[in-house]
Amino acid sequence: MGIFSRTRDIIAANVTDLLDRAEDPEKMIRQIIFEMNETLVEVRASAARTIADQKEMRRHIAKLESLQDSWKEKAELALSKDREDLATAALVEKQKAGDMAEKLKAEIAVLDDALKGYENDIAKLQKKLSEARARQSSVVNRLESAENRYKLREMTNGDRVEDAFSRFEILERRVDEAEGRADALGLGYKKSLDEEIAELQSADKVADELAALKAAQAKK
């Protein structure tokens, strides 16, 4: 079942209110635009038929006016021949054609009013359609923005982030354990005799070199 049942429903519709009450605004706006387009096509088709009817009536009126002229000529001819009876009959036919032409003119006037109504409806429908399309763009953009925000929050607050940090903690723990093993290798280590003597010899060399530098400075 459609959203709108008549052209007037669309013209009077509050698109914003319809969207606010919709469970799925994006789907609703698509349906609104679809029905507005369909209605616009129907109204234009009705207007086209009205214009066609008017053209046909005007052609018929032209024929009736020509027929009136013809009956008038016949009446004049009959009267010139002293055939008043025929002249009267011809004038009666002329009157019938005239009456029919007047009726058609009255119908054209009615159709003119209908055509003005169609024109007014089309203008209002186009305005509503433009409004709906603008709202569609807004709804789509807002929905896309909301979905992006949701995905971002899901990423930052969801299980995936927690899992990632858990993996980081596991890696850090492994590094700590590796460093601990390296540090543990140095625990309880005792220098050998050769290492201690080598350190003493190195210290003596440094001391001798320092004494030589001091002596050189004293001579200056």
UniProtKB/TrEMBL annotation:
Superkingdom to which the source organism belongs: Bacteria
Keyword Secreted among record annotations: no
Record keywords: Coiled coil
Record carries keyword DNA-binding: no
Assigned protein family: Belongs to the PspA/Vipp/IM30 family.
Encoding gene per record: pspA
Identification of the protein by name: Phage shock protein PspA
GO CC list: cytosol
Coiled coil: 101-181
GO process annotations (BP): phage shock
